[in-house]
Design brief:
Radius of gyration: 21 Å
Distance between the termini: 12 Å
Structural class: alpha+beta
Largest sheet: 8 strands, mixed
Bound molecules: alpha-D-galactopyranose
Number of helices: 11
Helix content: 40-55%
Length: about 375
C-alpha cells in the first residue's frame, strides 16, 4: 500500500472511527507545452503524472460534511449542505473542497453528507496542480457515493474550474482539471480548450519526462495570473474576436499599430504558443525529439520575453537543462509561472547524465540541489477501492 493511501486511511479511521466506504484518486499534471493558452480557448499538451491526491469518503445521512486533511496535521473543516457555503480565510485547502461541493450543488446535483479524509503526494507550491486534483477527487468521490452516473469526467473538470474561478477566486482555465479527470496512462493529452475535445498522444518509453523543482515557491501569484488573463481578454476585444484563439500571427501584426506594446506581446505569446502546441503534438507523434526540443525552447523564450511570467532563477535552471540535454529534447518552465517547476523532455538513456549535471550546476535558494522527478504519464481520476 502506498504511503499516501496509508496516510489517508489512518486519518479517516482516527477522525471518524471506521474505515472509509471508498477511496478515489486524482492525479497532478505536468504541462509539456501550451502555457496560458487554455483560457484563450486555445490548445494545451499536458500529461497526468504519478503524484496524486487521494480522497477517502463515507456518506452521511444528516447532510453534514466533515473533512480532515492528513497533510495538515489532521486539521478538520465542517459545514452543512443545507446552509450557505462560505469561503474561509484559512485553511486554504478547505476552500477547494467547499468550492467543489458548492459547484456541484449549484449545478443541481443532489449530494449526500459525507465524512472525508484527504492526503496527497503532489509537492505543494510547485505548480503541479495539487488544488485541481483535490477538486476533481472530491467530484469523483461524490459521483461514486451519490450514484451520479450522468456526471462524466469533462463535466467534473468544468465544475472544478468553476469552483476555482467562482469560489477560490483564481480565474484559471480548464487544463489542470481536465487532464486530471481525463488523463490516459502512457499518453500526453492534446486538449482543444474551446471544444474540450481531448486527444491522447502516445509518449514513447524511450522519451523521459523530467520535472525539476526550482525551489522557488509559486506562493500567492493569483493576482499576476488574473492580470495576464485580463490583458489577453483586452487584446481579444481590441480585435473584435471571442478569444485570442481566433487570431493568427498575420491578423495580429495587421492590427498592431493601434495596440500598446505590452498587450501586443501578451497576445503574441498566446498566438505563437497555440501554433507551437499543435506542432509539438505532431513532433511527439512522429518521434521528432529535435523539433519538440526547438518548440519547448521557443515556448520558454516567449514566456520570458512576451508573457513575462518567468523569474531569473527559473531562466537559469532552464538554461542549465538545455545545455545538458543538447538538441534532442529541451526544457521550459511549466505551469502558471513566477516559480515552481521546469519540465524537460529527453531521451530516457540520458536521464542519469542530465540529472548529475543539473544537480551540480543549479542550487535552490536554500543552497540545495533541486528535487528531480522522472514521470510516466498516468491515468486520470477514478475509484481506487
Ligand atoms: C495554471 C492554471 C491553468 C493554466 C496554467 C498556465 O496552472 O490553472 O488553467 O492557465 O496555469 O498554462
Amino acid at each position: 500500500m502506498s504511503i499516501v493511501r496509508k496516510s489517508v486511511c489512518a486519518s479517516f479511521a482516527k477522525a471518524f472511527g471506521s474505515p472509509p466506504a471508498l477511496i478515489v484518486r486524482a492525479p497532478g499534471r505536468v504541462n509539456l507545452i501550451g502555457e496560458h493558452t487554455d483560457y484563450n480557448d486555445g490548445f494545451v499538451l499536458p500529461a497526468a503524472i504519478g503524484v496524486e491526491t487521494l480522497v477517502a469518503a463515507s456518506p452521511r445521512a444528516d447532510g453534514q460534511i466533515r473533512v480532515v486533511a492528513a497533510d495538515f496535521g489532521d486539521a478538520m473543516d465542517m459545514f452543512a449542505l443545507g446552509s450557505a457555503i462560505a469561503v474561509r480565510d484559512e485553511p486554504m485547502w478547505a476552500n477547494y473542497v467547499r468550492g467543489m461541493i458548492k459547484s456541484m450543488l449549484d449545478a443541481g446535483f443532489a449530494l449526500c453528507g459525507a465524512d472525508i479524509a484527504v492526503a496527497g503526494s503532489i509537492p505543494k507550491g510547485t505548480g503541479l496542480s495539487s488544488s485541481a486534483s483535490l477538486e476533481v477527487a472530491v467530484g469523483q468521490a461524490f459521483k461514486a457515493m451519490c450514484g451520479l452516473d450522468t456526471l462524466d469526467p469533462t463535466r467534473i473538470a468544468q465544475l472544478a474550474q468553476e469552483a476555482e474561478c467562482g469560489f477560490v477566486g483564481m480565474n484559471c482555465g480548464i487544463m489542470d482539471q481536465l487532464v486530471s479527470a481525463r488523463g490516459v496512462a502512457g499518453h500526453a493529452i492534446l486538449i482543444d480548450c474551446r471544444s474540450l475535445a481531448t486527444e491522447p498522444v502516445p509518449v514513447p518509453d524511450a522519451l523521459a519526462i523530467m520535472i525539476v523543482h526550482s525551489g522557488i515557491s509559486r506562493g500567492l501569484v493569483d493576482g499576476a495570473y488574473n492580470e495576464r488573463r485580463t490583458q489577453c481578454e483586452a487584446a481579444a476585444r481590441h480585435f473584435g474576436v471571442a478569444a485570442l484563439r481566433d487570431l493568427d500571427r498575420r491578423a495580429l501584426d495587421c492590427g498592431k499599430t493601434r495596440l500598446d506594446d505590452l498587450t501586443y506581446r501578451r497576445a503574441r505569446h498566446v498566438i505563437t504558443e497555440n501554433a507551437r502546441t499543435l506542432a509539438a503534438a505532431d513532433a511527439l507523434r512522429g518521434g521528432d525529439l529535435i523539433r519538440l526540443g526547438q518548440l519547448m525552447a521557443e515556448s520558454h523564450i516567449s514566456m520570458r520575453d512576451d508573457f513575462e511570467i518567468t523569474v531569473p532563477a527559473i531562466d537559469a535552471l532552464v538554461a542549465v537543462l538545455q545545455a545538458a540535454i543538447g538538441t534532442e529534447g529541451s526544457a521550459r518552465m511549466t505551469g502558471g509561472g513566477f516559480g515552481g517547476a521546469v519540465v524537460a523532455m529527453l531521451p530516457a538513456d540520458r536521464v542519469e547524465a542530465v540529472t548529475a549535471l543539473v544537480s551540480a550546476k543549479y542550487q535552490t535558494p536554500e543552497g540545495t540541489p533541486p528535487h528531480i522527478m522522472i514521470e510516466r504519464p498516468a491515468a486520470g481520476a477514478g475509484l481506487l477501492v
